[in-house]
Amino acid sequence: MIPLSWYIALSVLMFSIGVLGVLIRRNVIIIFMCIELILNSVNIAMVAFAHYLNSVRGQIFVLFIMTVAAAEAAIGLAIIIAMYRNKETLNTSDINIMKW
Amino acid sequence: MILQVAFIYFAAVTVFSALMVITRKNPVHCALYMLAVFTHVAGLFVLLDAEFVAAVQVLVYAGAILVLFLFVIMLFRGDGMKDKARFVSGWPIVAPIAIALMGLLMSILMHSGFSGAQGSYTIEAVRSAGNSQVIGMALYTDYLFPFEIASVILLVAMVGAIVLAKKKAD
């Protein structure tokens, strides 16, 4: 039997890697992938808790998280395409017209 | 024993591939490492007796979202980066903050006891009824309204993506 804390530790580790990626990368697409990493780490925690509490609720929530992730990926990539059409760049350092 | 070995394998590959995603330069390589992350997370779901979620993970994440990413990457000339630096200039300052966040979350979660009300879906009960059947029953009875809202979200996302990515007719 695998302890629940192993899954939680893995989830935290993956969440932090995702946060680190969002903070340090310049490429918008890779920042987007890191958001997917963060959502996936939450899914691991959800399913792990569902398993150890004998509940099915966590698995249902994972399905909803996946729905939102798919919607978010479609909208976000469309925004990136629209942005590239206007600015010809994916670099977050070049997207600074709102910078004060 | 075999379960622990399997967990360690899946966890190690997941973490390694996640680190590769945030460090590789070429977005296509990052997308392929994401594929490794998604499939190994699906393996973890199988270890947790969540076969349906594992299948949906492979279908939706590896099958749909990742292909969408690869298609969008292919639309850009080169990698779309005029400045060749892959990290922001302040990354040596930012990285310890993320590591401190990890330490904080770890210390909070490891020192809190995970106790809660035990549900009625024990592993044996779910296995005898079938994982997909149990999820389907819960989804179409207790969670029918959220399920309908999810379908509306997908419709809005579909329309929104088409409107945003379409060229202006001029």
Highlighted features:
heterodimer; A: mainly alpha; Helix Hairpins; 3 helices; B: 170 residues; mainly alpha; Four Helix Bundle (Hemerythrin (Met), subunit A); globular
**Ranges of chain A with pLDDT <50 over ≥5 residues?**
none
Kindly estimate the percentage of residues of chain B that lie in beta strands according to DSSP.
under 5%
Number of domains of chain B: 2
Number of domains of chain A: 1
- What is Rg of chain A? 17 Å
What is the structural class of chain A?
mainly alpha
Taking all residues together, what is the mean pLDDT of chain A?
Answer: 90
Distance between termini of chain A?
54 Å
Notes on the protein architecture:
The complex is a heterodimer of chains A (100) and B (170). By secondary structure, chain A is mostly helical. Chain A has helices at residues 4-24, 28-52, 57-87. Chain A has one domain: Orthogonal Bundle (Helix Hairpins). In chain A, 77% of the residues lie in helices and 0% in strands. In chain A, helix 1 packs antiparallel against helix 2. The mean pLDDT of chain B is 88. The chains are: A mainly alpha (100), B mainly alpha (170).
Write the topology of this structure:
The complex is a heterodimer of chains A (100) and B (170).
Chain A: H1 4-24, H2 28-52, H3 57-87
Helix pairs in contact in A: 1-2, 2-3
Chain B: H1 2-23, H2 27-47, H3 51-75, H4 91-110, H5 123-129, H6 131-141, H7 144-165
Helix pairs in contact in B: 1-2, 2-3
